[in-house]
């Protein structure tokens, strides 16, 4: 940025301000209106936040969201790590054609680039067919967890794959020269090296799960209402209220907090990767 002329930098800064305003002003409005007066609480107050923690429906939805987020993130991180390791391990050195070079990456990218609406409807049809012929996978927290894992894993795989591609391939050959079998090489070399990517992928998976509405809406059952679904149904019934704004503000703060934690983890990872050659 120091090589860019000052006029261009000021112009870019001016162009970025409307974008930031469009992104963050609606979030600020939700937070402000969460302190708005209500029928029983005139004046600016935080009564909406107290009402949330005394609402059993909100607390039940919160427990389901936390259970779904952490459960799916753990499994999604495990599967995504294996997928990222497989992409790196079996990537062809020179192109490799469609089957060896393009198809595996396409399979990983499809859940990411596919619209959430199409993905949710396809999951709904699949679970209904399975339940119709086998009696398994009735709509509920289990189907939501499976659906969340399917779209979380590719994101984790890309994070892990990006970390592995930056490593020296000679490290793995050196571990084999030191008589480490593939399992020991994976446990004692690959996992420690990609640990920051695992933590970052896990936090990203939690954020995606908490933030998701569309896929959760299509795969949820009557007794598996999460916070995003609860907010949607409450607004559909009685419109926006200070309680809903307070709940939305808490969710925004949670997602921002997880995103900041993910940012600092990845930043620490990058700093450590820059320091490794200097130490060597």
Descriptive overview:
There is one protein chain. The chain is mostly helical and 280 residues long. The protein has a single domain, classed as MetI-like fold. Helices cover 79% and strands 0% of the residues. The protein contains twelve helices and no strands. Helix 3 runs parallel beside helix 6 and helix 4 packs across helix 6. The longest helix is centred in the last third of the chain and has 38 residues. The two termini are 30 Å apart. The mean pLDDT is 80.
Which key terms come to mind for this protein?
single chain, mainly alpha, MetI-like fold
List low-confidence stretches. none
Q: How is the biggest beta sheet arranged?
A: none
Radius of gyration, rounded? Answer: 23 Å
The CATH architecture classification is Orthogonal Bundle
What is the number of strand segments? 0
Instruction: Give the H and E element order.
Output: HHHHHHHHHHHH
List the helices and strands and how they pair.
Blueprint: H1 6-33, H2 47-52, H3 56-89, H4 97-113, H5 116-134, H6 141-165, H7 170-177, H8 182-193, H9 195-211, H10 214-219, H11 227-238, H12 242-279
Helix pairs in contact: 1-12, 3-6, 3-9, 4-6, 6-9, 7-8, 9-12
């Amino acid at each position: 940025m120091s090589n860019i002329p000052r006029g261009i930098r000021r112009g870019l800064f001016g162009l970025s301000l409307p974008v930031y305003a469009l992104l963050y002003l609606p979030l600020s409005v939700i937070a402000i209106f969460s302190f708005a007066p209500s029928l029983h609480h005139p004046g600016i107050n935080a009564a909406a936040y107290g009402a949330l923690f005394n609402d059993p429906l909100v607390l039940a939805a919160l427990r389901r969201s936390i259970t779904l987020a952490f459960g799916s993130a753990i499994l999604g991180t495990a599967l995504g790590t294996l997928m990222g390791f497989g992409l790196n391990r079996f990537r062809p050195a020179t192109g490799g054609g469609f089957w060896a070079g393009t198809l595996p990456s396409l399979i990983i990218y499809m859940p990411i680039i596919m619209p959430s609406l199409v993905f949710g409807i396809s999951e709904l049809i699949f679970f209904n067919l399975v339940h119709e012929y086998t009696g398994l996978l009735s709509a509920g927290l289990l189907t939501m967890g499976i659906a969340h894992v399917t779209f979380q894993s590719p994101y984790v795989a890309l994070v892990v794959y990006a970390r592995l591609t930056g490593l020296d391939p000679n490290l793995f050959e050196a571990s084999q020269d030191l008589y480490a079998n593939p399992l020991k090489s994976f446990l004692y070399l690959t996992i420690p090296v990609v640990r920051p990517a695992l933590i970052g992928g896990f936090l990203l998976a939690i954020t995606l799960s908490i933030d998701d509405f569309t896929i959760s809406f299509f795969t949820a059952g009557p007794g598996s209402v999460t916070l995003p679904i609860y907010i949607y149904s409450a607004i559909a019934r009685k419109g926006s209220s200070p309680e809903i704004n307070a709940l939305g503000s808490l969710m925004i703060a949670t997602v921002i907090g997880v995103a900041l934690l993910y940012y600092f983890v990845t930043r620490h990872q990058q700093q450590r990767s820059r320091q490794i050659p200097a130490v060597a």
